[in-house]
Design goal:
α1 packs across α2. This protein has a domain of about 35 residues. It has about 60 residues and is mainly α.
Length: about 60
């Protein structure tokens, strides 16, 4: 039995970005979902290095 969670979620992209994702999905013969999932897997380490607004607020409160 598969343990994959297939929850449905709406995501909103700027039109040009969505067009680019669609072109890449067509090029690779993949779904939009697959393309976005792969992009997340590649980018998540870099994104975690970016400070969040909460990090900035906590630094000012602890100063």
């Amino acid at each position: 039995m598969s343990t994959t969670d297939h929850r449905k979620q709406s995501l909103y992209f700027p039109e040009e970005m969505l067009n680019e994702i669609e072109r890449e999905a067509q090029r690779q013969d993949r779904s939009l979902s697959w393309i976005v999932q792969q992009a997340w897997k590649l980018a998540r380490t870099d994104l975690r290095r970016m400070p969040s607004p909460n990090d900035v607020l906590n630094q000012h409160q602890n100063s």
